[in-house]
Amino acid sequence: MERGKLGEIISSESRLQLVNMIWLFAILTVVIWAYYFIWYYNKAIVNGKDWYIFVWLNVIAIILDEIYFAARYYNIYLDLKDSGEIITEEELNDMTTKTYIRYYVICGNNIFLNNHEADPYVENRFVIDTPFVTKRNVNGMTTAEVQGIIQRMCGIKSGQLRFFFGRKMELTKHRVLRYFYYLDGDIENYPDLNVNGEWINFDEVKIVYNEMPQVMARPLLIDLSRLITIVLTQKLFDSRGYRKLKLKSYQPTITLPEVRDGNYDFQDDKWLRISMYNSDTRGFQWRKWLNKFTMMTGSKTDSKKRNSGGC
Hints:
alpha+beta
């Protein structure tokens, strides 16, 4: 989700290409081996029909497959161009560096959100999102500047600023930074934060996230997904991907105070990779052994090169 539209296309098309390759080569394999055992086997001379089945059938099938995908991706390009999602080279050269900052104001296990924010992706649609979003036409900002912005936006200077995570979009030269802004005490002490919104308990936010994600803004979904996935994965698995507790029915919980007090690095994608491939996944042990074997083989090869004077 963090990669945007390009990430969606790459993810879906990668699966489609893999399925296509499996079916294409499976069908060619069945046809060629069936022909070999039924009509060709024990023949002493290869005739024109044999050449057609063994060689040209494969070539024609692959060419037709390439033509299909070429037409498919050209149509995708036209759709993106018509919807204005294609950035031209001239537009890239004219773009100035922008820094987008999203703040999540938190007090205890409550987060301040607005359920009537305009959806930038769908016209005349309102979603749940943080009201503390700003844009600056600068390349870099100091921590003091970032903290000063949220202090002016919410009207509270006693909060604690904490970096969440950030990403840089290489094509547009833009950066999107996320920060937590923690307030001490109870939410009754902060009834007015200078913007539209309300305090919502994080347990309610998780229910909406799991059952009605469509009512949330896309950036909020991205940030919640990273937050929840990293914390829960770190509770379930160690850094090698093995379960800390063998009891698979164990379902950990997550609260905002423990996020504040915990030593979590949300910038690192390591725990996201572990969440997708861990000891609960089929073939995990085999892949671990294969990676270990590959590393051992590679280290032995490098050692031989060094001993023989190779580069």
